[in-house]
Design goal:
The chain is of the alpha/beta class. It has 3 domains: 82 residues, DnaA, N-terminal domain (GMP Synthetase, Chain A, domain 3); 199 residues, P-loop containing nucleotide triphosphate hydrolases (Rossmann fold, 3-Layer(aba) Sandwich); 90 residues, Chromosomal Replication Initiator Protein Dnaa, Chain: A, CATH 1.10.1750.10. Helices cover 55% and strands 8% of the residues. The protein contains 23 helices and 8 strands. The N terminus is likely disordered. The structure holds adenosine-5'-triphosphate (ATP). Adenosine-5'-triphosphate binds next to helix 8 and helix 15. The site of adenosine-5'-triphosphate has 18 residues, from helix 8 and helix 15. Keywords: ATP-binding, Cytoplasm, DNA replication, DNA-binding, Lipid-binding, Nucleotide-binding. InterPro entries: AAA+_ATPase, Chromosome_initiator_DnaA, Chromosome_initiator_DnaA-like, Chromosome_initiator_DnaA_CS, DnaA_C, DnaA_dom, DnaA_N_dom, DnaA_N_sf. This is Chromosomal replication initiator protein DnaA. Pfam families: Bac_DnaA, Bac_DnaA_C, DnaA_N. Oligomerizes as a right-handed, spiral filament on DNA at oriC.
């Protein structure tokens, strides 16, 4: 079988996918899902690979705990000996901006571009040649053409197309929420590309909430808030990704509130994404929260098996074409990927890339056994010893000096409620149990309680050092 070096140069995405899957195994599911999985590989101004983390906190965590190892692994796989750089999303965007645009440009306005129909919609890897796309913070491959609709995202997809068509009578603002790695950023990018293609004259602004905050803070320091306000309030379509990041940042919330009301008053369109619905954004003040939910609130759910299969199929089709494979991969290989690769669509994509990179032009003729062997690192975590809910409850109770019965009880004091949330989070990460199933095993609680617990712990992992340590310690113990 041709090895990975048989079709060089090797794509940075392929190297990263292999590095990430080893890190996942070595760091454990909890830390991996909190800090590595939500990060994305991008290309720096000199063509160097950069791991872009969603927050500064995640960047620091990765620098402390995984960067050295990631570079070691990277150098073992990459024949071109590139080394991996690390930046938070804000740092990365700022760097791109310094390279590409005048300093007075405040936000990431989408520059005029070719229509999506002439974009390389089949290409699974971003074409970084288009400086405008890089400055805009948009990724070329994230169009409607490359998005696979299905159960879990169908409504969000339909609404996204509607917003992008500039049709009248739509809800405003539109608010998409869902777990990480299931297509929110993809849809926001796709809206921007299509809206741009339909109305090249329109001013479309795409930015993350973190970018909004950092740019606003800088504008205050530079006494240039008027320019900041003009830039955003002049948008015909404003797309704000990951709005939950604005939680706890009072002045940014206030500014976003005024931006939003100004745009709504003039019938300009606004779309948000977040990891939870507005009603659960407890650190966002009530009046902004209420405006966020005043249009359409639309959930993206985790993908079911048939959507996972559809995504695998689409991505492997594209890769087969690029690799010149004579035929499409066998159905049992597709089914295996969809069923057995753990995690979100982001991880599923990683496994598909690994398989394609390892098999090269033989992709179409791979047997199931060969595919399983090639994917071993991606599957390691799930193939390891099964962890049970009972085991998690006992370990967690022990760790926090409680009894297992406390976790199942009605007690709501913080000293019991927080460990219970940690245990629920660990169950979601380390078992295949559904939210309702986990709820049932925690004294017959509702699935929304589990959902809330998982979100809460994910949030605390970014901000609370102690919880991060507890979760890491427990994850290590669970993995034996
Ligand atoms: N339905 C889909 N069809 C095709 N690709 C998808 C789909 N859903 C997700 N993906 C891919 O999975 C990856 C993760 O998606 P995306 O970045 O949009 O997730 P997200 O929900 O915004 O996550 P985060 O909260 O971490 O930002 C992307 O590469 C995206 O292209």
């Amino acid at each position: 079988m041709p090895g990975i070096n048989s079709w060089s140069p090797i794509l940075p995405e392929t190297v990263w996918s292999k590095v990430a899957s080893t890190l996942r195994h070595e760091l454990g599911e909890g830390p991996y899902n909190s800090y590595v999985a939500p990060s994305a590989l991008r290309q720096g101004p000199m063509g160097d690979p950069v791991l872009v983390t969603p927050t500064l906190y995640a960047r620091d965590w990765f620098a402390r705990n995984a960067l050295k190892r990631a570079n070691e692994l990277w150098s073992q796989i990459d024949p071109e000996s590139r080394s991996l750089d690390l930046k938070s999303r804000v740092e990365f965007d700022d760097q791109a901006k310094i390279v590409q645009v005048a300093p007075e440009t405040l936000t990431e306005t989408v520059a005029p571009l070719a229509s999506p129909s002439v974009l390389p919609s089949a290409a699974p890897v971003v074409n970084f040649q288009d400086a405008a796309a890089r400055v805009a913070g948009l990724q070329e491959r994230l169009t409607f053409d490359t998005f696979v609709p299905g159960r879990g995202n169908e409504f969000a997809y339909t609404m996204s197309r509607q917003v992008a068509s500039w049709a009248d009578g739509h809800f405003n603002p539109v608010f998409f929420h869902g777990p990480y790695g299931y297509g929110k950023t993809h849809l926001l990018n796709a809206i921007a590309w299509e809206a741009r293609a339909r109305r090249p004259d329109a001013k479309i602004v795409y930015l993350t909430a973190e970018k909004f905050t950092s740019t606003f803070v800088k504008a205050i320091q530079d006494r240039s808030t008027a320019a900041f306000k003009d830039e955003l309030r002049g948008a015909d379509l404003l797309l704000v990704d990951d709005v939950h990041f604005i939680g706890g940042k009072t002045s940014s919330q206030e500014e976003l509130f005024h931006t939003l009301t100004a745009l709504l008053e003039t019938n300009k369109r606004v779309v948000f994404t977040a990891d939870r619905p507005p009603s659960h954004l407890n650190e966002i003040e009530a009046r902004l929260r209420s405006h966020l939910s005043s249009g359409l609130v639309c959930a993206l759910d985790v993908a079911d098996q048939s959507l996972r299969l559809g995504i695998v199929e689409r991505k492997l089709d594209q890769l087969s074409m690029r690799l010149g494979a004579a035929q499409k991969p066998h159905h049992d290989v597709l089914q295996f990927l969809a069923d057995r690769v753990p995690g979100s669509i982001r991880e599923l994509e990683g496994a598909v890339n690994t398989l394609a990179a390892s098999a090269g032009a033989r992709l179409g003729s791979l047997t199931l056994d060969e595919a399983m062997a090639l994917l071993q690192p991606n599957l390691k975590v799930s193939a390891e010893r099964r962890v049970t809910v009972d085991e998690i409850q006992k370990l967690t109770a022990d760790h926090f000096a409680l009894k297992q019965a406390d976790l199942l009880s009605e007690r709501r004091t913080r000293s019991v409620a927080r460990p219970r949330q940690v245990a629920m989070w660990l169950c979601k990460q380390n078992t295949t149990r559904s939210y309702p199933d986990i709820g049932r095993r925690f004294g017959g609680r509702d699935h929304t309680t589990v959902l809330h617990a998982v979100k809460k712990i994910e949030e605390l992992l970014q901000s609370d050092e102690q919880i991060a340590k507890d979760v890491e310690a427990l994850t290590r113990k669970l993995r034996g």
